[in-house]
């Protein structure tokens, strides 16, 4: 864990990898490989992991599988480094997942707004208030593309002002929001939520990155993040240009398949995906494969 994460007691700071979940050929979860993957990520410079996010295919896991994924990550690298996604259709269920994460030893959780319908502001506030009762620090996850609920800066400031959230994973792609969030809620930690706006949000003052592509390329991705937040734009700019053909897949519908394919190419276990996701089209697979092989040839793997 980076020094500022420890001294500020803000375990969501730094590079937290939204982990892909290794599946066997029969689509069962390979918990042994998952534990090894979490350990490997930390050994390669990442600060922690985010299990049960979209990249971890949480929506298609059984409750038993979902709980075991969290417990496996904690056993592998320690709860301080684990920030599970606790999204659910109902607030009561999301609270139960936050309590499960708390009881497993996690130091924080990540929470989407209500996503079963287009929730209004009062519903969003009530949702975060309910889950906050679990007593574990919450990082909000703003993904208006998928949830159709937009945590705009003004709403984030209200959630923070009520004490419900401590940070936000920003996935809107609108980097201008970083400055408005800093004005309205200067103590709210902004976390980079999409790989392909990393440099822009790092320059704007982001305190962390909930990351996708470190699943395949952790060392190069961490080097990019560290250079970007340190203001070393020569180093960061070069790495960003080299990695961007891959990073932009994090904002595409097929991000899980793309990242898992890159993992397979570099010698990790990405493996298949569960339905309703389907394999990449041949042209998509070719694009990911070529971009990954270029990164490997450039010494970034």
From TrEMBL:
Q: Which InterPro entries does the entry mention?
A: Aldolase_TIM, DapA-like
Recite the UniProt keywords alphabetically. Answer: Lyase
| Pfam families the UniProt entry points to | DHDPS (PF00701)
Give the signal peptide as a residue range, or say none if absent.
none
User: Cross-referenced Gene3D superfamilies, in alphabetical order?
Assistant: Aldolase class I
CDD domains per record: DHDPS-like
Is this entry keyworded Ribonucleoprotein?
Answer: no
Look up keyword Lyase and say if it applies: yes
The record, for PANTHER family, names:
DIHYDRODIPICOLINATE SYNTHASE
Family the entry assigns: Belongs to the DapA family.
Q: Identify this protein by name.
A: Dihydrodipicolinate synthase family protein
Q: Which organism is it from?
A: Streptomyces phaeochromogenes
């Amino acid at each position: 864990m980076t020094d500022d994460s420890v001294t500020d007691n803000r375990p969501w700071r730094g590079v937290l990898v939204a982990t892909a979940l290794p599946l066997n050929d029969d689509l069962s979860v390979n918990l042994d490989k998952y534990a090894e993957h979490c350990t490997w990520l930390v050994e390669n410079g990442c600060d922690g992991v985010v299990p049960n996010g979209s990249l971890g295919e949480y929506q298609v896991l059984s409750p038993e599988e979902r709980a075991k994924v969290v417990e496996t990550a904690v056993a592998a690298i320690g709860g301080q480094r684990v920030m599970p996604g606790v999204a659910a259709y109902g607030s009561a269920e999301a609270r139960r997942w936050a309590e499960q994460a708390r009881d497993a030893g996690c130091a924080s959780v990540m929470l989407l707004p209500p996503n079963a319908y287009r929730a209004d502001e009062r519903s969003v506030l009530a949702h975060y208030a309910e889950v906050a009762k679990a007593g574990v620090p919450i990082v909000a996850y703003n993904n208006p593309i998928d949830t159709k609920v937009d945590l705009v800066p003004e709403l984030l400031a209200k959630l923070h002002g009520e004490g419900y959230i401590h940070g936000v994973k920003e996935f809107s792609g609108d980097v201008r929001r970083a400055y408005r969030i800093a004005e309205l809620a200067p103590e709210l930690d902004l976390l980079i939520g999409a790989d392909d706006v990393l440099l822009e949000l790092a320059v704007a003052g982001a305190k962390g990155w909930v990351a996708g592509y470190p699943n395949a390329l952790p060392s190069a991705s961490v080097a990019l993040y560290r250079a970007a937040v340190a203001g070393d734009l020569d180093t960061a700019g070069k790495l960003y240009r080299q990695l961007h053909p891959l990073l932009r897949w994090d904002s595409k519908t097929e991000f899980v398949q793309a990242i898992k394919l890159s993992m397979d190419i570099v010698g990790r276990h990405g493996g298949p995906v569960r339905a309703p996701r389907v394999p990449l089209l041949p042209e998509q697979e070719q694009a990911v494969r070529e971009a990954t092989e270029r990164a490997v040839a450039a010494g970034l793997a």
